[in-house]
Write a structure and sequence with these properties.
globular; about 140 residues; 7 helices; about 65% helix; mainly alpha
Length: about 140
């Protein structure tokens, strides 16, 4: 989606936010990014920080959430929903949205399962296990 360069990913978010503030036209990807940003007003000031924002670090061990990672995971989930991959994710998302009141809340629930699945893949050096990921999501839909 953005490449593997952390600075490039972050720059995409900052530039998209600048464009929307200046009422400039957005690409399809920038529109998706700004839709996610709009749902996270707690990140608006950060994104207005321009280039200074690109080098900041957040420590999960200290209970900090990386806002760029958080928003990128929302985008990943929306891309999964668009492709219905893994097959059945749209159904689970609809169940979670009904249970939690809206699609954004459903995505927040889904972020946990996605993060866990990506972490395991990173540790093992293998691709993410889509079957396990979907099982986790289904469990969240029935247990929540």
């Amino acid at each position: 989606m953005f490449g593997s360069d952390r600075g490039q990913l972050r720059r995409q978010f900052v530039e998209a936010w600048e464009k929307i503030q200046q009422n400039r036209p957005l690409s399809e990807l920038e529109a998706l990014i700004t839709d996610i940003i709009a749902l996270h007003p707690e990140y608006h000031d950060l994104l207005g920080g321009g280039e200074d924002t690109l080098d900041l670090d957040w420590q999960p061990e200290q209970g900090e959430t990386n806002p760029f990672l958080h928003m990128a995971m929302h985008i990943a989930i929306r891309e999964q929903l668009g492709a219905n991959r893994p097959a059945g994710i749209r159904e689970v998302h609809a169940q979670l949205a009904a249970r939690h009141g809206d699609t954004h809340a459903a995505e927040h629930v889904m972020l946990e399962a996605l993060g866990e699945t990506l972490w395991e893949a990173q540790r093992s050096g293998l691709p993410p296990d889509e079957t396990l990921y979907l099982e986790r999501l289904r469990k969240l839909a029935t247990d929540s």
